[in-house]
Amino acid sequence: METEIKMLSDIHKNADMGQDTLRHILDATKDAEFSKTVSRQMQEYEKAFQVSGQMLKARHAPEEQKEAPMISKWMAHMNINRKSMQDMQTSKLAEMLIQGSTMGVTSLTRQIRDYDGEDTEVLDFAKKQLKREEKNIDELKKFL
Questions:
Q1: Of the N and C termini of the chain, which has fewer Cβ atoms inside 10 Å?
Q2: Centroid of chain to Cα 116
């Protein structure tokens, strides 16, 4: 159960961070097509956050494993603010999002590969989340 909670917790924190970051990116862009893509991805993160939260609750996960640390959110906001003040081009914003999603892909790929538990619901959810992250990256590439 510990492996499943760790994997779900990481997905949950990533979804929390993702929706928070995308909300901030929406405020920094004026590109309508990019905004539409970012909004859709934000909705996916919101859904993943809700589902992973429910799955964590069903597995009686401790509360501290359920949210991204505030310092991480603050640092991401500062990074977006710093970069967007320098250059608010859509391509730069897309690049930042691709970098964040790439970190998520790397982490999930490693966890899926190393998973030795028996909870297929958690493993299937992780695999679906990995595919979403990869799809997000592909969609953002057109804005580079």
A1: C
A2: 23
Q: Give me the count of residues in the chain.
A: 144
How large is the C-alpha radius of gyration of the chain? 15
Tell me how many degrees the CA angle 131-137-141 measures, rounded to the nearest 5. Answer: 145
pLDDT in tens, 93-117: 999 899 999 999 999 999 999 999 8
Could you tell me if 15 and 52 are in contact, meaning their C-beta atoms sit under 8 angstroms apart? yes
What pLDDT, in 10s, does the model give residues 13-32?
Answer: 899 989 988 988 888 888 99
Helix segments in 1-144, DSSP class H: 2-28, 32-58, 70-86, 90-114, 120-141
Q: Tell me if 4 sits within 8 A of 117, measured CB to CB.
A: yes
Burial track 29-47 (b if 16+ CB lie within 10 A, e otherwise): bebeebeebbeebbebbbe
